[in-house]
Amino acid sequence: MTFLELVQALHRESGAAGNAPTTVTSQTGEADRMVNWIKQANLHVQNLWENWKFLRTTDSRALTASVNTLSAPSNLGMWDFDTFRIIPNGETTAETILAAEYEDVKTEDLDTSSGTPWRATVMPDGSLRFEGTPDAADTFQADYYRVPLATELTNNADLSSIPARFHNVILGRALILYANYEGAEEIRTQGVELYTDYLARLENSQLPNRAHSRFRTGANIVVRPE
């Protein structure tokens, strides 16, 4: 659903009086609150987990010879340590390098030798420090999870990063926000049911927990621990 369609669904499912909004911009009163509840619900869900699959992206940048640091991507949420690679200058094959948190290696002596980096340390600000210091324009590659975008839902046709088939999780959360404001317990119950159901579906699909997902068989939920 688009941003506008989500707002209109919130109006419909909440039983709000009057006509549904026809735009998400320049609204006032209850319509403006509905627009903001959808925005808040979208960000709430995206911020529940840092490692949602839909937040995964890739960083690929050339290093600078004699410089052993690399700034963090501007939208960095969390690095995926298992994906750190170096492509030595002039080559095409990526080599795996070690990744470490600064807290885990801060008491070790820093390798200041020059050469193809063998380890990248994630500093407290998310930037990287390499050992050894690059002696050429090697390419660093890694996956990371970006932060949710507060401006993601701005215009009528904008779409959430949450996969479309799970957008009811946004609607469910927004219904809870609406009900909390209005003191409407029945609407809150409706919202909790929708939110809980679709959050489980979203987590099954978009978290790296395949072995522990909830599988549906008929009318029963089968939990398969491994």
Primary descriptors:
single chain; 226 residues; alpha+beta; 5-stranded antiparallel β-sheet; 4-stranded mixed β-sheet; 5 helices
Helix tally equals 5
Question: What does the largest sheet look like?
Answer: 5 strands, antiparallel
Helix % is: 25-40%
- SS-based structural class? alpha+beta
What share of residues are in beta strands? 15-25%
Spans of at least 5 consecutive residues whose pLDDT stays below 50 are 216-226
- Written as H for each helix and E for each strand, in order along the chain, the element string is HHEEEEEEHEEEHHEE
Radius of gyration (CA) equals 23 Å
Number of strands: 11
Mean pLDDT: 93
Tell me the distance between the termini.
35 Å
Description:
The protein is α+β, with helices and mostly antiparallel strands and 226 residues long. Helices cover 31% and strands 20% of the residues. Strands 1, 3, 4, 5 and 9 form a five-stranded antiparallel beta sheet that branches. A hairpin with a 5-residue loop joins strand 7 (119-122) and strand 8 (128-131). Helix 4 packs antiparallel against helix 5 (185-206). The relative contact order is 0.19. The model is unreliable at 216-226 (pLDDT under 50).
